[in-house]
Specification:
By secondary structure, the protein is an alpha+beta fold. The chain has helices spanning 2-70, 96-105, 116-124, and strands spanning 80-82, 85-89, 109-110, 130-135, 144-145, 181-184, 194-197, 204-210. Strand 4 (130-135) and strand 5 (144-145) form a beta hairpin. The relative contact order is 0.15.
């Protein structure tokens, strides 16, 4: 009888050990499956991320190509875009030197007009005389832009008066130094032409900067 009891107890412990082992094996299997699922999910997430990144980069490339082909570009606040450039039309008045320096602080320069299209655009946005980036401060009669390039006479828009006198005339009666800086129009007159003026006069001004594409 005692032998049977001992055997029964041993069987109980053995069965319990088998059950415990089975539970441990089941948990291990579940753990391996869970880790495998996580690895699979991580691989899927990485693939999705890579796909989204590639789509984003391709979208940026398409946007840049679109900007280039359509002339659509970015300008800072209060600047106007035209022809791949940005233009700033001031609301305050400064003398020519101050205007030149202020345009530089804004990231540009006083406007350089290279064509009739640009002239028409600039003058269509002003109603009063404005400084432009043209002067003959270094050598009288030798007009250069703020980038030191000489003005193209064929592309110049100097006014010719009714009396036959053509600007620039370097009028010295108002000041012995004469008129060495150029602006659009003259006070109280039309603005679709250039005229020379005393550089110390305070006028509004036009800045120019390349557009960000």
């Amino acid at each position: 009888m005692k032998v049977l009891i001992v055997l029964s107890v041993c069987l109980v412990f053995a069965f319990g050990g088998v059950c415990t082992l089975a539970i441990l094996l089941t948990r291990a299997t579940h753990f391996n499956v869970s880790v495998s699922d996580q690895d699979h999910n991580a691989t899927d997430y990485k693939a999705q991320f890579d796909a989204l990144r590639n789509q984003h980069e391709e979208t940026l490339r398409k946007l840049n190509r679109l900007n280039y082909s359509t002339g659509c570009a970015l300008c800072a606040a209060h600047w106007i875009h035209s022809g791949g450039k940005c233009y700033y039309f001031s609301t305050v008045k400064m003398n020519w030197t101050q205007s030149r320096d202020h345009c530089v602080t804004l990231g540009g320069h006083l406007v350089i007009i290279n064509s009739k299209a640009e002239q028409d655009f600039v003058t269509s946005n002003v109603k009063k005389t404005h400084w432009i980036g043209l002067n003959d401060l270094d050598t009288e009669g030798h007009w250069v832009w703020v980038n030191n390039q000489p003005v193209n006479d064929s592309a110049g828009f100097w006014i010719k008066r009714e009396n036959g006198i053509r600007e620039p005339d370097n009028w010295t009666k108002g000041h012995p130094d004469g008129e060495d800086c150029a602006g659009l129009g003259h006070p109280g007159g039309e603005t679709d032409f250039w005229s020379d003026a005393f550089c110390f006069l305070e006028k509004r001004f036009v800045c120019e900067a390349p557009a960000a594409v």
